[in-house]
């Protein structure tokens, strides 16, 4: 009986957290992240402020934890791809694709958050996710970097900022290419920036 009660409580907690997260997404699109207040979020999510603060420190904590979940998902997908044949022209990086699919699912939210009306801390955290992914790639040593004389910190910082710029271009131009093609293109561009050897470009999707 206690186990059933705990399970129901866990479900209620997850539902409340999901409503809060969705409220943050919707309100950010409507009025910009800076203008969103905890009172706004609580009202939209139909929870009281005490419930909000029981689960989150503030609105920044909501989006920070969301990005951590996205990062964990991308890491799992990337890890599952380790050991597969090395990238070719049409290779789709699994971790990058998982990240881009999540962005596509909340495209209007990411367009605001990574743009001028967003949160600099969110954009910084997003760049950290990209940096971490490419540090792991470099550490794996599965490819020979032609630019190995460059500091790794410089390489990953360049890639992270370039990736953010490319994503904003994609979002602001109405997603002109498929998410799969974007993953291929970004993967190629980023590996080129790292000086890694790849095959010739394949046909466009």
Describe the structure in your own words.
The chain is mainly α and 205 residues long. It has two domains: 1-56, Homeodomain-like (Arc Repressor Mutant, subunit A), CATH 1.10.10.60; 59-205, Tetracycline Repressor, domain 2. The chain has helices at residues 2-31, 38-45, 49-55, 59-81, 94-105, 107-113, 120-140, 152-172, 179-193. Helix 8 (152-172) runs antiparallel to helix 9. The chain starts with a helix and ends in a 12-residue tail after the last helix.
Could you name the key traits of this structure?
205 residues, mainly alpha, Arc Repressor Mutant, subunit A, Tetracycline Repressor, domain 2, 2 domains
Helix content: over 70%
What's the overall average pLDDT, rounded?
84
Following the backbone from N to C, one meets helices and strands in this order, namely HHHHHHHHH
> Which stretches are low in confidence, meaning pLDDT under 50 for 5 or more residues running?
142-146, 197-202
Shape: globular
